[in-house]
Design brief:
Pathway: Purine metabolism; IMP biosynthesis via de novo pathway; 5-amino-1-(5-phospho-D-ribosyl)imidazole-4-carboxylate from 5-amino-1-(5-phospho-D-ribosyl)imidazole (N5-CAIR route): step 1/2. It contains eleven helices and 17 strands. The chain has helices at about 20-30, 60-70, 85-90, 100-105, 110-120, 165-175, 230-245, 280-285, 290-300, 330-335, 365-380; strands at about 10-15, 35-40, 50-55, 75, 125-130, 145-150, 160, 180-185, 190-200, 205, 210-215, 220-225, 250-260, 265-270, 310-315, 340-345, 355-360. Strands 9, 10, 11, 12, 13, 14, 15, 16 and 17 form a nine-stranded antiparallel sheet that branches. A four-stranded parallel sheet has the order 3-2-1-4, with helices on both faces. Helix 4 (about 100-105) crosses helix 5. The structure holds adenosine-5'-diphosphate (ADP) and magnesium ion. Adenosine-5'-diphosphate binds next to strand 6, strand 8 and strand 14.
Length: about 375
């Protein structure tokens, strides 16, 4: 299928103006595009780099109409955007990627896991839980497990670990009887993620898998190349690309995997957007995940995804700031010539809030990890 590319200086629209929107805007502006950000927050991090910031709600009819009027293509940076808004925008004839349908699937853990299974890919055993009545009988296939809210969970929020049916029922009550999934606790050997891109013309590429370590439910470091076998690496990339094909996806899709004993791979979840675990691509691949999003939504060829150098990405949370918002000791980072600092322009540092990240490039993943940890320790 021939697709007419959307070229600079076309205006691109993005729903959401957090750090992902900010890095998207930088990539788009670097290539000569213009950017309109829709985000109700007057201090949205992406606003610094946007040509136009519409500070209105995501379902505001005037704001959506302005996007249609001014933008040649539209994307999103966060999955809890109103899928209806995205469907409406697409209905007005503007290319919207990913589609509202794909976003709707990724927003709901039941729809997501069901879709993954139907695509012939593995997930952990899971049970949709609508009401307490679903938590009766023999649940041994799902216990010990994790009760997760079907919607709006992130960074480990909205999750309760449970060992028994009684604990699962108590957890459902703690979660205010929202629709949930009960998922079997898996014995994880490691966690990896793959950022895959599918363009308007249907070309699919994937970035090298990142090996992810979490702290308190929040991504802490990503290590690339992941310290897993070549066969497992290739299978993870293939599975992620298969999922993008099955979704008829356009844009950047992040797929999270659990690695189990015997190098078994199961898909944990997906995010219909660039992902924190793909921030290493800002410095260690020719094309970043944000440029890849621009390329996909504009119908350009995908850029090269090969890893140029082993890299470790470290998240900088608000916890690294001092009690009175005192800045970390940036000296140690900015004087290390093989490291790159990325800050998101957020003025208020709160515990657990993603303020920025840094990438360390070295001869091996282990060397990068050792140096990254040393820098983190000295920061604050
Ligand atoms: P979030 O949307 O908050 O990222 P996830 O479903 O990815 O939610 O869960 C967060 C983390 O919790 C995972 O990265 C993993 O470390 C752990 N986890 C989640 N589900 C399971 C499971 N079924 N078995 C073992 N660990 C899990
Ligand atoms: Mg996750």
């Amino acid at each position: 299928m021939a697709v007419k590319p959307i070229l600079p200086p076309a205006m691109l629209g993005i729903l959401g103006g957090g750090q992902l929107g900010r890095m998207f805007a930088v990539a788009a502006k670097t290539m000569g595009y213009r950017v309109t950000v829709l985000d109700p927050d007057a201090k949205a991090p992406a606003a610094d780099f946007a040509d136009v910031h519409i500070a209105r709600p995501y379902n505001d009819p005037d704001a959506l109409a302005e996007l249609v009027r001014t933008c040649k293509a539209i994307t999103t940076e966060f999955e809890n955007v109103n899928a209806e808004s995205m469907r409406w925008l697409a209905g007005q004839g503007v290319p919207v990627s990913p589609s509202g349908d794909c976003v709707a699937i990724a927003q709901d853990r039941v729809a997501e896991k069901t879709f993954i299974r139907n695509a012939g890919l593995a997930t952990a055993p899971f049970l949709p839980v609508q009401t307490a009545a679903d938590l009766e009988g023999d649940l041994s296939a799902y216990l010990p497990g994790i009760l997760k809210t079907a919607r709006l969970g992130y960074d480990g929020k909205g999750q309760v670990r449970v060992k028994t049916v009684e604990e699962a029922r108590a957890a459902l009550s703690d979660l205010k009887h929202q629709p949930c999934v009960l998922e079997k606790m898996m014995p994880l050997v490691a966690e990896v993620s793959v950022i895959v891109t599918r363009t308007r013309a249907g070309e699919v590429t994937s970035f090298p898998p990142a090996e992810n370590e979490h702290a308190n439910g929040i991504l802490d470091v990503s290590i690339v190349p992941a310290r897993i076998g070549a066969g497992t690496t290739e299978r993870a990339r293939q599975m992620a690309m298969q999922l993008a094909e099955a979704l008829d996806y356009i844009g950047v899709l992040a797929v999270e995997f659990f690695i189990l004993d015997g190098d078994e791979l199961v898909i944990n979840e997906m995010a219909p957007r660039p992902h924190n675990s793909g921030h290493y691509t800002l410095d260690a691949t020719l094309t970043s995940q944000f440029e890849q999003q621009v390329r996909a939504m504009c119908g350009l060829y995908p850029g090269k995804t090969d890893l140029l150098r082993p890299v470790v990405m470290v998240n900088l949370l608000g916890d690294s700031w001092g009690a009175n918002g005192a800045e970390p000791n940036w000296d140690v980072l900015l004087t290390a010539p093989n490291s790159k600092l990325h800050l998101y322009g957020k003025t208020e540092a709160r515990s657990g809030r993603k303020m920025g990240h840094f990438n360390v490039l070295a001869d091996s993943a282990d060397a990068a990890l050792e140096q990254a940890r040393a820098i983190k320790d000295m920061l604050g």
